[in-house]
Design a protein that fits this description.
The complex is a heterotrimer of chains A (161), B (378) and C (344). Chain A is mostly beta strands. In chain A, 9% of the residues lie in helices and 28% in strands. Chain A has a five-stranded antiparallel beta sheet with strand order 6-5-4-7-8, with no helix packed on it. In chain A, strands 2-1-3 form a three-stranded antiparallel beta sheet, covered by helices on one side. The longest helix of chain A is centred in the N-terminal third of the chain and has 11 residues. Chain C is of the alpha/beta class. In chain C, β9, α11 and β10 form a beta-alpha-beta unit. The chains are: A mainly beta (161), B alpha/beta (378), C alpha/beta (344). At the B-C interface, α2, β3, α3, β8 and α8 of B face α3, β3, α4, β8 and α9 of C.
Chain lengths: 161, 378, 344
Amino acid sequence: MSEPVQRVLGPVALDYTVHAGSVTGAFLEALLDKRLVGRRCPSCAKVFLPPRGACPTCAVPMPEAVEVGQRGVVTTFSVIRIPFDGQVLTPPYAAAHIVLDGADTPLLHIVGECDVDTVRMGMRVEAVWADPIEPTLASVRYFRPTGEPDVAWDAFKEHLG
Amino acid sequence: MIPCAVTGIGQTRYAAKREDVSMPELVREAALRALDDAGLDFDGIDAVVMGKAPDMFEGVANPELFLAGALGAAGKPMFRVHTAGSVGGSTAIVAAHLVQSGVHKRVLTVAWEKQSESNAMWALSQKFPFQPPVAAGAGGYFAPIIRAYMRRSGAPEHIGWQVAVKDRRNALRNPLAHLHLPDIDLDMVKASPLLWDPIRYLETCPSSDGACAMVLSADVTGDRPPAWVHATAMRSEPMLFPGRDEVSPRAGAACAQELFEQAGKTPADVDCAEIYVPFSWYEPMWLENLGLAESGWRAVDAGRTALDGDLPINMSGGVLSSNPIGASGMIRFAEAARQVRGTADAHQVDRARLAMGHAYGGGSQFFATWLVGTEPPG
Amino acid sequence: MRPVHIAGIGQIPNVRGDTDHDEVQLVQAVASAALAEAGLHKDDIGFFCSGSSDYVMGRPFSFTMAIDGVGLWPPKRESHVEMDGAWALYEAWVRLQHGDVDTALVYAYGKGHGAPVDGMLTAQLDPYYEAPLGPSPMALAALQARALIDAGRLTERDLAEVVAHARRLGATHPGVPAIDGPLDVDALLDAPYVATPLRAHDEAVRTDGATAIVLSVGGGGPRIGGIAHCIEPIELGLRDLTAATSVRRAAAWAGLEQAGSIDVAELHATYSPQAVLLRQVLGLADAVVDPSGGALVADTPFVTGLSRIAEAARAVQGGAVRALAHASGGPCLQHNLICLLEAR
């Protein structure tokens, strides 16, 4: 008796040409100059980084570009200790919500150049750029601690999510 | 609005890999059980509504098309819903609306996932040039939000362990559950490895294959009592905007508020609830968000949410014990209905007359809830 | 049933490779236009519903990003179908029957130009028996064309005529990209076969685009006289490919027989034999068919069906008494929706 067939491998490969659109495209181009450029909503005046094609709450385009700082605060984080397919980094590493100076939205990114057990809410961090730089968010390799004093909870508790 | 009843419920056995069945066989396993429960066959059904999370999980695009035949939908209307993790709940709601609006009399609704056919972690962590290279799967997304809840509420870390134990003990009473961990206790959860700090391995949901089906009907068929739909609600909000409270999203609270207003009930009227808890900490978080408890973690700590507590939550073992993503929301809705029908077998809550089902999806953005009762509405 | 009207339409041109708009920008553009036409603000809308495809967009949960274009804040009632936007309109129509909300915004978006649409459509087939064989959607459409030719229902000249018709009308429509190729039937028949009896021009031009429609209970605008849908098995061998059974049923359930004569029809035919078959089974001999040029000259996957409803509504706004819109999904007209629109 032969083994019953329970699985058949059916590889699916589909190639896409994706256009970033004018807003994200401009953001990615600015990365080549090591600049982080968000957009300000003309209605609620908040600065989005990364920028979106429209303000998610007001549903209007955001024509005004605003360069934000390369330093910011870790509002919350997780240490990722699980390996899985498709992972770019080797665990453990810290994934953090980082609100950059001048931005109003958290950017999900990585905290590096420190022991993962020292990452904390309120920690000040700054961007470390990859070399060479490409027009992708991976061009910011990670954020590292600046050594500045931590930010008080009350100052960022509205920016957790 | 025409009253709508749940007259049939069918679920598959949940497991990491259901290699004994194909996708059509999986959905039929649930559908035929639901039809049998309702005393019907496919001929008695007017339309089929299917829900499923991303098609990339199985590598089949729009699988409702190839499953139409297996579900007896040929020659009938067939509808496909996809609202991320809340899809099982919103699928049931779309089906209920078809009955309540008078468009159809009897609707078969099915939600499923067969994650073992592909690689869900891969499907959730694709590399896109516009996104940061953080790819961390669902746990990596939700762990920072759990940390924010712990900080904000001051909840001690054992709360998450307690929920993990409680749901797995409930699952021991549910033969369909994926995880059966007879030795589960706090020490075992505490000793399990940290995956996405602060989430430990045993505080996470498994990845399951499975399907859940219901017959929603304007007329009562079959031999068992129906569950009556008293209210349904869906609410959504954007993923990322300044000042968003992702610990207790306003869409979740608004969804529950609309639900209770529609039914003319309050959270205190709910006898038990099945809520979408993929990581243990989401039980206290949702209890607060939905208005079921002022302090979610204190309710957990006091044992109120246990099967013998005054507010039993996830009597079936919940998402923590079985998680076929696309079906998980519908399982919550179906298990709520089982409770008020009195057909929940070993995990039945005594005298359950009004039960809540809840599902959420995306970055805690998409919410679907329903209230079902022993008595007809109104 | 409560009377549901089309109160506003938002469209942008379908283009081959839209470099300006991501999905958020696409949705924002058409949603704001539809709301403006209806004279409403997003916060006036009781229910939002969209249609799109993860496989078309190339990532899971694509719609969770696209919702940023409609502004679901404060939190809104919202749902999504993994089907053409025409089915999102159907869900919204059902939702409006409840009586607690009176307005809905429906939208669909897609990027068909840079997407591997052929591969995606092949991935819709039965994964055990059919998909591994890798039949292209053109090959499946050719089987249906062959069945229709063998049954004496059409000729290759009929196919060339519907293509020429679509190109002539599409050439002047602002939503259609520039026509690439001949408008003349004989010239079309001179083109080489790709999958006999079909030629390259028998397949729709895949484009990027979006459409939004605002529905309201009461008020002005074209009224939805009937809407219904029906599916058949995906397996071609289990269907009579010349019968279009599910098209007939959906049309009957939508009330086509009782409706009276149809002035204008917009059809979701992505292969020319489907366009011929639909004309036959829907009895459109006296109707103006596809005044927009139809799906053959601008097919944005998962948007095309909703666009047909939008174009049919435009025809009613422009003086037609009764219009029919058709939407489709799956191979060889497997899944079909019919929406009848009437002047008030």
